[in-house]
Amino acid sequence: MTKTYIIAEMSANHCGDKELAKKIIKEAKHSGADAVKIQTYTPDTMTIDCKNDYFRLNCGTIWDGTYYYDLYKEAYTPWEWQSELKSYADELGIDFFSTPFDKTSADFLEDLGVEKYKIASFEAIDYEFVKYVAAKGKPVIISTGISSFDEILEVINVCKSVGNDDITVLKCTSAYPAKIDDMNILTIKDMIEKFSPYNVKVGLSDHSMSNEVAIAAISLGACVIEKHFTLDRSLGGADSDFSLNPAEFSKLVESVRLTERALGIVSYDINSNNRILARSLFVVADIKKGEKFTPLNVRSIRPNFGLHPRYYSDIIGKCAKCDIKRGTPLKFEYL
Q1: Out of 70, 79, 139, 192, which could bridge 166 as a Cys pair, Cβ 3.0 to 4.6 Å?
Q2: What does the CA dihedral 87, 89, 92, 94 come to, rounded to 10 degrees?
Q3: Residue 281: what are its φ and ψ, rounded to 5°?
Q4: Is the confidence at residue 239, as pLDDT, over 80?
Q5: pLDDT digits (tens, 9 = 90+) for 162-208
Q6: What is the per-residue burial (b if ≥16 Cβ within 10 Å, else e) of 85-122?
Q7: Beta strands at 280-283 and 298-301: parallel, antiparallel or unpaired
Q8: Where are the strands (E) in 92-132, listed by range?
């Protein structure tokens, strides 16, 4: 089985502190993540500073009542940090990439030398932007939390229209945190089947606080898992309420790796050592030469030294070729 790619999403959990951001990268590495991801935007690349009701969050999130601009001003990762953060991640040996939110941030990340891009759920329907990112020729991972089935197909075709075939779509429930009952991860299996003609990989962007969701996703065929990561939820940060701490993330990674081992490969091989414990046909009462085999002198019992039990009905009624002692495994040559 291909190793699951596990992404630790830092997002706003650095709380505006570059040293804390570096500690998050270090702990993500120690926790077993394959990659740490950040987000690259400014409040002005995301929205406008407008204080009417259109620009106030009111959709059932933990940020309701906050203006979009103010939230992004608090949560963004300063661009002047990002080269240093990438260098630090490179030193530690953990992949480092980001989610751009407009063309300027995509260009910035390209100059930074990131090797893949993530498209957030709410930007996945901005096809011109997605096309711009996909045209850079790097792998593209796309969350689909607010996309319909048709929109997922459209964004896949947008990437392919510029020659980018390295596409991963993530099943995502865009709620923060997401409720278990809303995860519907059986969709992953359907996505794999429906998008297989497009040669698209499928994964999970998980905003729940449960590791079981990711484990189940792996069993359904997900090859990427993304979870938010923080050093400590008590530190605050816009995304801390649905982020795992290092101990929790380590447990997630351990569970995913164990699940991979358990899934293994499709195999009908048997354990030949334990096969000896199975049943077979034995003589259970002394039989004289010429005597018939009956249910009283032949039984299917453990261990597995005699004939396969499938031959029982064929043997009953036939005659013994020689004397056979009780406790002898039955063989064809005795018939």
Answers
A1: 139
A2: -140
A3: -85, 125
A4: no
A5: 999 999 999 998 877 888 999 999 999 999 999 999 999 999 999 89
A6: bbebbeeeebbbbbbbbbeebbebbeebebebbbbbbe
A7: antiparallel
A8: 95-100, 117-119
